[in-house]
Design goal:
- By secondary structure, this protein is an alpha/beta fold.
- It is 46% helix and 19% strand.
- The protein has 11 helices and 11 strands.
- It has helices spanning 2-27, 42-58, 73-80, 95-103, 139-148, 160-173, 185-194, 204-212, 260-274, 277-286, 295-315, and strands at residues 33-37, 62-66, 88-93, 115-124, 126-130, 154-157, 178-181, 199-203, 217-221, 248-255, 288-290.
- The strands form 3 sheets. It has a 6-stranded mixed sheet, with helices on both faces.
- Strand 6, helix 6 and strand 7 form a beta-alpha-beta unit.
- Helix 2 crosses helix 9 (260-274) and helix 4 packs parallel to helix 11 (295-315).
- It is globular and about 65 Å long.
Length: 321
C-alpha cells in the first residue's frame, strides 16, 4: 500500500513537471530575446530590420547586441556557450558558419555541433569601390594598374566575404593587391574615401552613402545581376571578368539543444517577417534579398557553403592564420 502510494506521488510529480514544461513552451517567449550580431555595417542593419519585425510576430522585443571582431568568431563563440533557452540567439554569416573554418587554424566553436539552425535571413552582394582621387574609372583600369605596379595598391577587408571577393578577383586576373585587415567593413570604406587604402569590395549599406556623396567610386557589383540602387554600375562579368560571382549570406542560430517547439516558433516568426513587403523594401536599400530558409535547409546549406568557401580559399592559396 505504501509502495503504491509512493508510485502515485511519483507519477503525479512527473505529470506536474511535464505540464509545467509544456506551459513554458507554449508561453515562449515571455520576456525579451537577445540577438547577438556578429558584425557591424550591413549585417547589423539587416539584423535590426529582421529582429524588429520578428519581435512583433512573437509579441516580445528582440534586442540587438552587436559584438564585432575576429571575422564573427567573438559573437559566435559567445552564443555557443549561452543557455539554450531561446532567449539568446545568434545572427551570423558565411564567415562564422562557412569560411572561418578554413581561414583560421583555431575556431573556438564547432559551427555544426554547437548551434541549432533557426532560419536563413538574407543573401547579399558587394560593390567594388576605389578612392575617387585615383585615375581608375573602371575594372579594366584597376586590373591594368595592379599589373603594372604589383603590390602598390592596397585593399581593406573585415570579413571573409570582403576578403575573398578581392582574392577571387586577384586570382582570376592574376594581379597583386596588398590586403589590409580591419575590425569592421564600414571603417575600411571610410579609409578608402580618406585615401588610407585604395580599394575594396564593400557592403552596400556602408558604401552607398559614400558613393552617392562622391567619396567613393563604384566600379562593379559582385553578383550576376545589377543592383537597383546602382543601375549604371555593371556586374564584374560585364566589367570584363567573365564568370565572376561572389555573394554573402546571413542566418540565425541558437545554442545547441534548443527545444523543438522554440525552434519552430522562432523560425515561423522570422519567415513571416521576411515575407513583409516593407521589410523587403528595406532589404533592397541595403543591397540584400530575403533568404527564407527553414532550419533543416539552413543546416544543409551551411555545410554546402563551408565546402564552397574552403575551395575558394585553397584555390587562392590563403594559408590559415
Amino acid at each position: 500500500m505504501k509502495r503504491h502510494s509512493l508510485s502515485l506521488k511519483g507519477l503525479g510529480a512527473a505529470l506536474l513537471l511535464a505540464a509545467g514544461f509544456c506551459q513554458a513552451e507554449e508561453s515562449y517567449p515571455s520576456r525579451p530575446i537577445t540577438a547577438v550580431v556578429c558584425c557591424a555595417g550591413t549585417v547589423e542593419t539587416v539584423a535590426r530590420f529582421v529582429t524588429e519585425a520578428a519581435g512583433a510576430e512573437l509579441g516580445q522585443p528582440i534586442v540587438v547586441m552587436t559584438k564585432p571582431g575576429a571575422s564573427g568568431m567573438i559573437a559566435a563563440d559567445y552564443v555557443s556557450k549561452a543557455k539554450p533557452d531561446g532567449y539568446t540567439i545568434f545572427i551570423g554569416t558565411n564567415s562564422s558558419h562557412g569560411a572561418n573554418q578554413s581561414l583560421f587554424k583555431r575556431v573556438p566553436y564547432d559551427y555544426v555541433k554547437d548551434f541549432t539552425p533557426i532560419s536563413g535571413v538574407a543573401d547579399g552582394k558587394l560593390v567594388l569601390v576605389v578612392n575617387p582621387a585615383l585615375p581608375i574609372k573602371n575594372v579594366a583600369d584597376l586590373t591594368a594598374d595592379a599589373r603594372t605596379t604589383p603590390g602598390k595598391l592596397s585593399y581593406g577587408w573585415a570579413s571573409s566575404s570582403t576578403r575573398l571577393a578581392m582574392e577571387k578577383y586577384k586570382m582570376m586576373e592574376k594581379i597583386d593587391i596588398r590586403d589590409v585587415p580591419y575590425k569592421t567593413n564600414p571603417q575600411a570604406a571610410i579609409d578608402i574615401s580618406g585615401g588610407t587604402i585604395d580599394v575594396m569590395f564593400a557592403e552596400f549599406s556602408s558604401a552607398l552613402p559614400l558613393i552617392k556623396a562622391g567619396r567613393l567610386r563604384a566600379l562593379a557589383v559582385s553578383s550576376t545581376h545589377r543592383d537597383k540602387a546602382l543601375p549604371d554600375v555593371p556586374t564584374m562579368a560585364e566589367a570584363g571578368v567573365p564568370g565572376y560571382r561572389l555573394t554573402w549570406w546571413m542566418g540565425v542560430w541558437a545554442p545547441a539543444g534548443l527545444p523543438k517547439g522554440k525552434v519552430e516558433k522562432l523560425s515561423a516568426a522570422i519567415a513571416k517577417a521576411l515575407a513583409k513587403p516593407e521589410l523587403q523594401k528595406s532589404f533592397a536599400v541595403a543591397g540584400v534579398e530575403p533568404l527564407p530558409f527553414s532550419p533543416s535547409r539552413l543546416s544543409a546549406f551551411q555545410v554546402e557553403e563551408h565546402d564552397s568557401w574552403r575551395d575558394i580559399i585553397r584555390a587562392a592559396g590563403i594559408e590559415p592564420q
